[in-house]
Amino acid sequence: MKVRSTYSKYSKVPGSTGATGYDVARRILDAHGLYDVQIEEIRGVLSDHYDPRSKVVRLSSDIYHGHSLAAIAVAAHECGHALQDQEDYAFLRFRSALVPLASFGSNISWILIIAGIFFTMTNLLLLGIIFMAFAVLFQVVTLPVEFNASSRAMNQVVELGLIRNEEESGARKVLNAAAMTYVAAAAVAVIELLRFILMYVAMNDD
């Protein structure tokens, strides 16, 4: 709700430079010699992301063509991930390495956990918890990646003159709101994991 309300507010505030999200992304990438990183338009709302495997920044239509502070901030944030990739940022590498385990763990863990609870089989429940832990670890590792990308984005839009001084507050609010969605997701994931761990302990006590 926070990110959507903040995005909605600042998507109505035009940037003073008139640059689109595409323009902003291209400026940031070119300033760091990332001429080979492509920028693609994709469908969806706030579906923007950077693909480190294909070396592509993908921007939703509103961001790609938008002139707003929100478009500028979001486009810059995704370029922040491209800069992390260029510098071989440790947390980004770690997160990328976790993707297969996190994806598999997220899919299989619930089956094992439900089966373990339903059939009162603690070994199955424990296995499900272990697989879920990989997905939770992915969420936790995502936090420094996202906050660092937002920090880089803010620095870039200021240094390259893509926003003016009076616009910094609005751009920062968009970036902070976006980062906080990952905090919420990580918190929910950790609490869920702890809930099943307590359930496992209780079943063993019984």
From TrEMBL:
Identify the InterPro entries for this entry. Answer: Zn_peptidase_2
**What keywords were assigned to this record?**
Membrane, Transmembrane, Transmembrane helix
Q: Which Pfam families match?
A: Zn_peptidase_2 (PF04298)
Q: Which residues cross the membrane?
A: 97-119, 125-145, 182-203
UniProt-recorded name of the protein: Zinc metallopeptidase
